[in-house]
Amino acid sequence: MLFLILTNSLIAGVYSSATFTLVNKCGFTVWPGILSNAGIAPLSTTGFALQTGESKVINAPSSWGGRFWGRTHCSEDSTGKFSCVTGDCGSGKLECAGGGAAPPATLAEFTLDGDAGKDFYDVSLVDGYNLPMLVVPQGGSGVNCSNTGCVVDLNGACPSELRVTSSDGEGVACKSACEAFRKDQYCCSGAYGTPDACKPSQYSQVFKSACPHAYSYAYDDRTSTFTCTAADYVITFCPSPNTSQKSSSGGRTRDPIPTAGHPSTGTWCTKGSKWAPTDLVGLGVMHHVWTIERVLFLSQYGPRETHPPTWAH
């Protein structure tokens, strides 16, 4: 009997480590996308439509890691191919099926049951911004178990050289400086591939000023990584009631409204999309991934000399 109880408990732990509740408070439809980290099985869905006011609960297994984002201005063409103006995952279908978000896109990133059994999570603007997002842990515990996100509508305040507009001139997304200019100092690559060499730019500071707890560039981990133990998570698109955009069709609650952190430990490659592995847009996220690994190391062993990774892409 004890064996059966332990077995059932282990099975429950493996298959129901956490739940993610995605909520759409935008005044338009959002199409969430989900990508598991490299080597981790996909969740029960990788993409779906979420109408205004709707929510959807997704179960994640123990040790799952990956990211969530919102796609906007999505439609099907005459051949049935599905695509989105922002956050498109390149699958040509509603389900992303292993494809990641084409920048710019706001990302909510998670690694469950990591170091010391903690969940690591953040909201990242390293690949740019397209939607306000808020992550709220529920039922968890920990000193740094707090709300995080970017709840400001940055599309209106986006510098003109970073702005992405729709066919009618509406600002629908804001690029990162790395994506816009493809220079090492913005991508934290080449000679700028260490935390000491890669500093905040005037552009990343625009993101940081608006969303102080969100990742604004690849090495912005000191104020941007959050941890919880045994929590579920609510991810809300457009959490502020005054956040608006034109139609795009085509625990524990702690701080009332903060903003972002980080933990993806998989390699970022957008399969089956126009974003090739060699694109510099991936470098920001890849450095960002390495930063989380550095955070985990420091939590166990303390400071050490940092060395940039040698990217396979």
From TrEMBL:
Keywords carried by this UniProt record: Disulfide bond, Signal
The name this protein goes by in its record: Thaumatin-like protein 1
Keyword Cytoplasm in annotation: no
PANTHER family to which the protein is assigned, alphabetical: OS03G0233200 PROTEIN
Disulfide links within the chain: 26-238, 74-84, 89-96, 145-228, 150-211, 158-174, 178-187, 188-198
Signal peptide: 1-16
Annotated Gene3D superfamilies: Thaumatin
Region (Disordered): 242-270
Ranges of Polar residues composition bias in the record: 242-251
InterPro entries, per the entry: Osmotin/thaumatin-like_sf, Thaumatin, Thaumatin_CS
